[in-house]
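Mods, move this if it's the wrong board.
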Amino acid sequence: MHRSGAPPKLNAIHLEQITIWTEKEALTARAIVARLKKECNVKVSVGTVTNALKTLGFV
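Not the wrong board. Structure tokens:
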């Protein structure tokens, strides 16, 4: 059954890109937000990136 609520802002491709960036260099959540906006044209909040990092096991 379909769940209610907003759809995810970051898809699997974005999460994979975040994983690659964070494995190569130590980045803050704000730096990841800026890079997502610049390279992927995705506007998300710092909290969204922080939650993604926790989901990926980086925090």
